[in-house]
Amino acid sequence: MTYDRLVCANCASPVSEGRCRVCRASRERLQQQEGFLGGLSPVALIALLILLVAALALVAHQTV
Predict the structure, then answer these.
(1) In the chain, where do the E strands start and end?
(2) Do 53 and 25 fall into the same domain?
(3) How would you write the chain as a 3-class SS string?
């Protein structure tokens, strides 16, 4: 999840702006949770998965 569209329940401003301490804490927590593929969009992850399956099918076809 990205924090650029989240709205803070404490101050009703976007979390990405970090206007209050709750926003800043949430923004920091979300930034720390971004992992290896955390910054990719779901469409990019699906495309990567399709490419991986296609590569595996090609390798399987070559070995037969």
Answers:
(1) none
(2) no
(3) CCCCCCECCCCCCEHHHCCCHHHHHHHHHHHHHCCCCCCCCHHHHHHHHHHHHHHHHHHHHHHC
Are both 25 and 3 inside the same structural domain? yes
Residue 42, helix vs strand vs coil:
helix
Domain, as residue range, for 57: 37-64
Number of domains in the chain: 2
pLDDT tens-digit series, residues 25-62: 888 887 776 666 666 778 988 999 999 999 999 999 99
Same domain, 5 and 29: yes
| Distance from C-alpha of 38 to C-alpha of 30, rounded to nearest angstrom | 10
